[in-house]
Amino acid sequence: MLTRLRIDGFKNLREADLRFGPLTCIAGRNGVGKSNVFDAIKLLSDLASMPLAKAATQVRGTGGRLPGIASLFAGRSEGRPTMQFEADMVVPRQVRDDFDQPAEATATCLRYRVKLGLRSTDASLSAPPLELLDEHLQAISLEAATKELRFGPDKAWLKRFLKGPGSRTTPFIDTQDGAVRLWGDRGRGGRQERVPAAKSPQTVLASVGAATHPTALAARREMQSWRQLQLEPSALRSADDFRDIDLISPTGAHLPNAMHRIGCGVELADLLSRLIPGVVSIDVDSDPVAQRRLLKVLLRDRQVYDASSLSDGTLRFIALGLLALDPLTTGLTCLEEPENGIHPLRIPEVMRLIEMLGQEPDFNDVEERARSDVSPRQIIINTHSPLVVANLPDDALLMADTVHSRGHEWAHFKPLAGTWRADGLPATQLVGRGVLSSYLGEGMRYQAGTPSGRRRVRDHLTSDLFQPEA
Known about the structure:
By secondary structure, the chain is of the alpha+beta class. The protein has 13 helices and 20 strands. α8 (265-273) crosses α9 (312-325) and α9 packs parallel to α10.
């Protein structure tokens, strides 16, 4: 789980500081920089798996080419271009290394920092365009972590997911005199490895693959698990071979096998019936001869439709529902513009599924409930739809806008007053009533079917939660 992310020098993100809970929505107009936050998260995830240059070329805007890497650095008038990321996260207690050996982390609340620099044009052509300048991995004490988790997890959540470092103060990774040092979990008395930062083609974290460094390995596994859903119609419609995996891919592939494993046809049909009245059941048609599975939907008129006959929006709804009902869906999920392909009147139901993706599933099995190799569920979405914003829980919103400084535009993110995200922030750093009213506009018209209980963003237009505007 990613609980806080500081970004400096990446695209149009300068000194950005974002806190995340189980559900976070970054909203704003097109081109403001919402997707750049997702790109930063993906870059961090890739840096835990692949060389620096390859990870950078995976980012949107580089064209997949090394010369495009320079465009990732925020514009600065002087000095060497650098970018820095600092991520606070909750990692699984137990992980498996590259040799399938189990390992248990010393602590689960960690802070990881990495700083990259762009090499000068005078550097050797054989040298990678990026240079590792600083890398640091440190445990956060239980007391500090509990204060940092401002979204208010209950005691059961804290007991399940948090584990403190005890008296340890030694970092697991640090940088000194141009060398990155990897420390064992026993602290300074344990094994230490040194890597010259300037010559390293990848982060030291990406090189940790053995159970000898369990906490660093847990941080790496957590970052590798961060997924970005990019649901594609062709993948959502595809059939599965019996031997295909039974986990839904980031593109939405393997719905039939996942449905077969979960066995949640009744629950999923109930969710889908809110979107399409008349849905009786959702099931999987298994062909033992062809060894193939196909998704089927039965309506009240007894008509049966397979996935190839369903609309893109319906398939997206099914995929989100399956992910929400799947106990194996854990950790961080990023989803851009969940409103795509959905009728405006159905946005409240989509948001219901989004909220479910940020809630821990109800386990019937005691052994499953006690698993320690998972991280908390979390979803981050971005949107420019006022309908999505209007139906958000109010504490989920971060409004994105731009500020101008020294000839550049930088993205800036503001929460609503009266929410945990607003704690300690001055009124100038909060979303004003006029800004929210202007943004929501027509979104206020569509309120039918909205889940009850929690306050919604639109409730702020008729409440006294706003600080007086200057």
